[in-house]
Amino acid sequence: MEKISEIASYLGIPNELVHPYGNYKAKIGLQALLGKKAEGNQRSKLVLVTSMTPTPFGEGKTVIAIGLASALHRLGLRSVVCIRQPSLGPLFGIKGGAAGGGKSTVEPMNEINMRFTGDIDAVASAHNLLSAVVDNHIFHGNELEIDPKSITWRRTVDMNDRALRHIVVGLDQRSKNGAPLSRDDAFVITAASEAMAILCLAQTYRDLKERLGKMIVGFNRSGLPVRAGDLGVSGAMAAVLKNAMEPNLVQSSDGSPALVHGGPFGNIATGTSSLVSIQMGLAYADYCVVEAGFGSDLGAEKFFDIVARVGGFRVDAAVIVVSIRALKYHSQSSEKSYNANVRREEKSQLQSSLPGSPLNGGIQNLEKHVENVKSFGLAPVVALNRFASDTDAEVNLVREACLYMGVQFEVSNVFSQGAQGGLALAQLVAEAAQTNSHSNLRIYESDDSFEEKVEKVVKKIYGGSGFAYTPAALQDLDRIQKLGFEKLPICMAKTPLSLSDDPKVVGRPDAFSVQLHHIGISAGAGFVIPYMGEIMTMPGLPKHPVAERIDITDSGEITGLF
């Protein structure tokens, strides 16, 4: 690896703004953006990496994003990749590390996977500071008259621990006036903390503190929101997050720059790296490759409608990652799937061209994601993340399908070959970024009502027919309207395993309706969250978690992360 000072120098970042954490990683001071703001003056190309609907194991978006940026670098184009920080929860759970794989990783990989520069720990500390202050305020007389039953602010830990989903706190404790303090509570994984979402959307320290102060912790006995600022700790929380606000600079296994910063949940938050890291990538590189969480129905939609809207930047090219594994997964028979509910009227040329194909349902799923990216004004490039088990016949079938769809297609071998295996893909993406009319399109407008926003996403992005409310969601909507939050962007929370709100529905479902179970408010992050189904904010571990294979040698080398 190159010394991190060399990587920073290559990008042109002033040496005094590079804060090293050892030899191979550094934080970059926010002053590096002064005078180089991307907003309104974006000359660099932003490439968004999304995917078809994934399997539970993921389809290699991180690997492709890293390999693509490395390949662009190999072509002589100044490039940087922006990805999220790994969480210890999935690291020890089912997915393992999130720093790439094979010959397309970000380095030092083990350190990045294992706590890195402490940003997620800082988010957890800031979050739990507020949790402690809420209960402390009630203990000392509850001057704000917080209704304990209305408290929405949970505690957090960066670990998958299903035993913490429902807990009771304050047992055998009483306030100074003798009132019992026990109440129901819960933990969320740190990636699901609103403090993490705020860290990834804040652009300055002042912005960070103001957003933290707006966070709603619960409601008083009159039904009015109680915010972190009312408890007087938003400044302390911002101080805890001071260093965490600075993007982390590392390098890929091919020596190209990488910014690894922020780790918001892909469901209840934006699911992409921090806004300041993306702005820094745009400011110092010619090509900034950004990975968005899950498929285009989640990460990409939120990137266009929330992240790019807040950051004021455009998208110049988009890559849709597919795998033969995912195409097969979405070709399973299901009475609710596309294959069993085919739109018999106006069959597309693609549908007619692939009768009986073992990948048919998956191809239909891919077709919807292509349509989604096109709805934002971009012609996507489809990248097949090739596995050793993939046959040439299967690959050619996907190539043929993309030809029918009228989109560019290329096989990616960056896992096995590093940058060299992504040169053809990089060439296609660079050409697309130069020829595309860059996208400033949105699915909905800020002035749309809440219902209009949800309906547009459900119909245009998911392919559904509409949505319905539960009684609880209607109560939430009434509160949102009364509090003046209706004009905020929506951050849709649903399963990533289906275009619908049912994870068992594979392929491309048709004429389905989703149900809004409840609606959350992330006032500090600046969006409301329509929940479709049960969204797990505290995952559990599988019977045999990845943690069982992780070890350390006598010399101190960590093994088993990938």
Would you kindly provide a written description of the structure presented here, covering whatever features stand out?
By secondary structure, the protein is of the alpha/beta class. It is 33% helix and 17% strand. It has 18 helices and 24 strands. The strands form seven sheets. Strands 1, 2, 3, 4, 5, 6, 13, 14, 15, 16, 17 and 18 form a twelve-stranded mixed β-sheet that branches. It has a two-stranded parallel ribbon with strand order 7-10. A two-stranded antiparallel ribbon has the order 8-9. It is globular.
Task: Please specify the SSE layout and strand pairing.
Elements: H1 4-11, E1 18-20, E2 26-28, E3 45-51, H2 61-74, E4 79-83, H3 88-92, E5 100-101, E6 104-107, H4 109-113, H5 119-139, E7 155-157, E8 167-169, E9 183-185, E10 187-189, H6 194-201, H7 205-214, E11 216-219, E12 225-227, H8 234-240, E13 248-252, E14 257-260, H9 275-284, E15 287-291, H10 296-311, E16 317-322, H11 324-329, H12 349-353, H13 360-375, E17 381-385, H14 392-405, E18 408-412, H15 414-417, H16 423-435, H17 450-462, E19 466-469, H18 471-483, E20 513-516, E21 518-522, E22 527-531, E23 551-552, E24 558-559
Parallel strand pairs: 3-15, 3-16, 4-14, 4-15, 7-10, 16-17, 17-18, 19-20
Antiparallel strand pairs: 1-2, 2-13, 5-6, 6-13, 8-9, 11-12, 13-14, 21-22, 23-24
Helix pairs in contact: 2-16, 5-6, 5-8, 7-8
